[in-house]
Structures are given as structure tokens and as C-alpha cells.
Write a structure and sequence with these properties.
A hairpin with a 3-residue loop joins strand 1 and strand 2. By secondary structure, this protein is mainly alpha-helical. A two-stranded antiparallel ribbon has the order 1-2. The chain is globular and about 35 Å long.
């Protein structure tokens, strides 16, 4: 019986490096965080998707003009998007927000900081 309880832990220990096997995400760069977390819903080109749900496009998105908006959405969630704040450090949230704001047709060059994220947390 004890062996059966250990199987999920053993499987996690052997999971590919591109998956976050624990409650906290392990990726550090904005590109890694987007690829392994965000693109599952927002797609690899960040253009969003329609189907079982509606996932908004992040490409050329004017809502990203103010860095505080995506920080708040990632940390606290919004509508169908879950809150990722408990799963990401301030540095990780800042990294993925800065990545989104400088890629996919977004050209917002004023970077957000980990301190900006800290102030957005409940």
C-alpha cells in the first residue's frame, strides 16, 4: 500500500523539465512562464482562442499599456482566469508581464518590477 502512495511523487520527480511539478511554478523567465503556463489558454502566438471557453488575445492588446493591469489579473485572477499569485513569486509575475508587454506585437517598454507586483497583492 505504501508503494502506491509513493507513485505520484516518483512520477513528479521524473516529469519533463518544461512542466512545473509542484504547487509553485519553477520557471523563472517570462518566456518560460508564458510557454509553460499562459499559452495553454492564450495559445503560442498569444492570439487567444474560442471554443470550450473564451481566452482573450494578448497580442497587440491595449489593456497591457498600464503594467498594473496584467499584474492584477495574474495575481488575483479575473472572470474565468484563475489567480496565479500564490503559485508565482513577485519576480516571476514581473518577468511574465514584461515578456507579454514586449512581445506579440506589444511594444510597452516601461518594465514592471517585483516591487510593483508586491503592492498589487491582497
Amino acid at each position: 500500500m505504501a508503494v502506491l502512495l509513493l507513485l505520484p511523487c516518483a512520477a513528479l520527480a521524473q516529469s519533463p523539465a518544461h512542466f512545473s511539478p509542484f504547487f509553485r511554478f519553477t520557471e523563472q523567465s517570462g518566456e518560460e512562464l508564458f510557454a509553460n503556463i499562459c499559452q495553454g489558454c492564450h495559445m503560442g502566438d498569444a492570439r487567444g482562442a474560442e471554443g470550450a471557453g473564451s481566452y482573450p488575445s494578448l497580442a497587440g492588446n491595449a489593456n497591457l499599456v498600464a503594467g498594473g493591469y496584467p499584474i492584477t489579473v495574474i495575481v488575483r485572477g479575473q472572470r474565468a482566469m484563475p489567480a496565479f499569485g500564490a503559485m508565482m513569486s513577485d519576480d516571476q509575475v514581473a518577468a511574465v508581464v514584461n515578456y507579454l508587454r514586449t512581445h506579440f506585437g506589444n511594444n510597452y517598454t516601461d518594465a514592471v518590477t517585483a516591487e510593483d507586483v508586491k503592492t498589487a497583492r491582497p
